[in-house]
Specification:
The protein is built from 3 helices and 4 strands, in the order ββααββα. The two termini are about 20 Å apart. The protein is of the alpha+beta class. It has one domain (about 5-104): 2-Layer Sandwich (ERH-like fold), CATH 3.30.2260. InterPro entries: EHR_sf, ERH.
């Protein structure tokens, strides 16, 4: 059941509470792709004239750390409830996710 665990990412991009939002994903893997996508859109916004933008895990970690808040609620089928995970867990999971993608 690990693969299809419904995941809600809670994010606040700045100290302004009005920037709070959430993103809804069908799996943890999709959520990690979604966070990468947010970062990639931010890079394109900052560098509109650069065609191919590259980054490494430390750049992604800096983006994650630069957010006012980031956490995830992941559905646990065994207890039929969502469990909270913090920014550090997301960074660890992101590393595992990207490592798995790179080895494919």
């Amino acid at each position: 059941m690990q693969a299809n665990r419904h995941t809600i990412v809670l994010m606040q991009s700045s100290p302004n509470r009005a920037t709070r939002t959430f993103m809804d994903y069908g799996s943890i893997s999709q959520a990690m792709d979604g966070i990468c996508g947010l970062y990639e859109r931010k890079l394109k916004e900052i560098n509109p004239t650069i065609q191919n933008i590259t980054y490494d895990i430390s750049d992604l970690y800096n983006f994650i750390d630069g957010l006012a808040d980031l956490s995830a609620l992941i559905f646990d089928h065994s207890i039929q409830a969502y469990l909270p995970y913090d920014r550090l867990w997301i960074k660890h999971r992101m590393f595992q996710h990207l490592k798995r993608l790179a080895s494919q």
